[in-house]
Amino acid sequence: xxxxxxxxxxxxIALRIYRACHDLGIxxxxxxxxxxxxxxxxxxADESVCIGPAPAAESYLNIPAILSACEISQADAIHxxxxxxxxxxxxxxxxEAHDITFIGPKPEHIQLMGNKIAAKAKMQELGIPVVPGSDxxxxxxxxxxRIAADxxxxxxxxxxxxxxGRGMKIVLDESQIALALSTAQNEAKAAFADxxxxxxxxxxxxxxxxxxxxxxxxxxxxxFGERDCSLQRRHQKVLEEAPSLILDDTERQxxxxxxxxxxxxxxxxxxxxxxxxxxxxxxxxxxxxxRIQVEHxxxxxxxxxxxxxxxxxxxxxESLQWQQSDITFSGHAIECRIxxxxxxxxxxxxxxxxxxxxPGGPGIRIDSAIYAGYKIPPFYDSLIAKLxxxxxxxxxxxxxxxxxxxxxxxxxxxxxxxxxxxxxxQDAIRDGNYNxxxxxxxxxxx
Length: 446
Fold this sequence. Notes:
The structure is a single chain. By secondary structure, the protein is of the alpha+beta class. Helix content is 34%, strand content 25%. The protein has 3 domains: 5-83, Rossmann fold (3-Layer(aba) Sandwich); 132-201, Dna Ligase, domain 1 (2-Layer Sandwich); 207-445, 2-Layer Sandwich (D-amino Acid Aminotransferase, Chain A, domain 1). It has helices spanning 11-23, 40-44, 63-73, 89-97, 107-114, 116-125, 141-151, 177-192, 249-266, 296-303, 307-315, 394-407, 417-423, 427-431, 438-445, and strands at residues 5-7, 28-33, 47-52, 77-79, 101-102, 155-159, 169-171, 197-201, 207-215, 221-233, 236-242, 270-279, 282-289, 332-339, 351-352, 355-357, 364-368, 375-376, 383-391, 409-411. α1 links the parallel β1 (5-7) and β2 (28-33). α4 runs antiparallel to α5 (107-114).
């Protein structure tokens, strides 16, 4: 096992990793920018190292500074969390070259899955169903018109190196193809320094279903069931739940077996998430995330398994503690992402938190690094807390979630808590009858 782990991240995920390290008896080192001196993960960690000024490019994305922090603290492993450098294959290579363990997949798998075209081709080769579309990047407007005509409108143009909705354009008919292509390429170039794009069939009412997996260095692969992440705004997940209401045990087992077989053949190491669009009873692969997910707590709540600890154990060379038959699912869990944003306009709301009171009671979990007196900086992501609720079934889970949201107090900044209170009053949410388009359509009606 590791002697000391450096956490190359900030906010709630840094605190989450610290807790996993503490529970394993491993000292943890926090890195931080100058504006994060008073951050909770910095206060609690066994050691802390300042790695630069506020801008992420000069601190949390500063690879030499992070490696220097490892040298100063004598950490022998780095956990990247999510975001920042977590899916940077070059960072993983550099870390390993310095005889430090990167707690994550092999660099070649990060690179492979970071390119959506290559990932799609590889998964198709491994027997995973994919969304109909182009097999390689679009090189010209003529290519785009030909492929879109073959696939059939509407289609969606996506950035090959992208995510989070950037470099993504929907094309309803041939008259829109030229403008959509150039716009998507320009956005992809600006966001990812790579203007490669590809085309897929645009699905009108799909669900977003993802499977959580873990694979060790001894050939063992298991899945921890699925999460339904269909409530989205601008391709960003807003609420996640597990298990999905639309899958039965037979379908869950079929897809789990298919995914585990593909991951085993790939030779993957660590935890990961295979994401699908699901429509008319069919799954279509869209991407693989080679890191811990923001929404991992819902899986932890229904399985009782600490996924961050598993990341650490796998990276240390240990075998998985379970076979697939050992993993069972209990009850229902839902996570709400609480952002420091206006609940209707979604304009970020950094500033001083004057009051902070978290809900409690059975089945309530809060993952947050916020406290009263903390000043939310304007330089980073607006996620400030994750409210995760568990119940014996979905109805109990929803009732507890409603109570928890009404108990949750954050003053001094705007948050999205009122949005979730409102959403829980909607029949579509209570019934689980929503898809990835539902939230945006609902918000337009407001």
